[in-house]
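Table S2 (continued). Query chain:
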Amino acid sequence: MLIRPATLNDIPTLLQFEQGVITAERPFDPTLVPGAIKYYDLEMFITSPDVELLVAELDGQLIGSGYARIKQSEKVYFDFERFAYLGFMYVLPQHRGKGINKLIIDRLKEWAKAQGLTELRLQVYAGNEGAVRAYEKVGFGKHMVEMRMGLERGDDNKA
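Corresponding output:
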């Protein structure tokens, strides 16, 4: 098993992983528009010094991904100015439950520490219990719960 930085040559497979993430998240988010959507600017993630996009490779095949992105804190009262936001955590279904996500997160933690960061954050759908358990298993804890309420969409063009 090799955990390594993604390259531009990995983009075709990473685009498939992106659709896997979107497919997995659709049941938890009624606000996602139907049809094809895109979450990530993969080329920017690969080339930016503020992002570490990693892939897991087994026998020459990419089987997982994840990134850490340096973000500025929006709250001046936090005891950190910058933090690493983790995302694009994906493992092919046939390789789940083998600790691959943990290996990626461990490497992202190392990268974040090397950048002088002291805080890791990520978002996960509350209803995605498997993902919540997986993140808790590697040391994340619930911090805030974001809540939402959909409102009926009125026809603004009516006179």
